[in-house]
Design a protein that fits this description.
This protein is mostly beta strands and 147 residues long. The protein has a single domain (25-146), classed as Immunoglobulin-like, CATH 2.60.40. The protein has one helix at residues 82-94, and strands spanning 11-12, 26-27, 35-44, 47-51, 54-57, 62-69, 75-80, 99-100, 105-108, 113-119, 124-129, 141-146. The longest helix has 13 residues, at 82-94. Residues 43-147 form the Blue (type 1) copper domain. Keywords: Copper, Metal-binding.
Amino acid sequence: MAFLAAANPVLADSGHDHDEALVYGEPGDPSKPARMILIAMRETDDGMAFVPNQIKIKAGEQVKFVIRNNGEFDHELVFADLESNLKHAVEMAKNPDMEHDDPNAARVAPKKVGELVWKFTNAGEFDFSCLIPGHRDAGMFGTIIVQ
């Protein structure tokens, strides 16, 4: 489950069929137990970053991500395979005000907190990125290793 903490009401579906199986998992069930992982988003002297930018998770594990935007700009976190996130970044560049209405994404306003609950069903390496134009290029991406 994702909620959008930003006030901008422009929403767009990233084209995922929410009923299709995703290689990187499925929306979690907020009523079931989950391991909590805190991810901070921020700007740095060298660019932008997620802290941590690498996360290890067990296959089949449900995780509640608490996402805090410590920065001065809106940021988002989008889970996907790397190819999907890079492709979607191109679409975001064409539509910079697009926000995601997907269970694998959350946009968080400065000094606010968002949450995502996700179940990682398959082993592999997956991407999380801020797809707001320029943010991924500035270093705002990370890897989820599911074992």
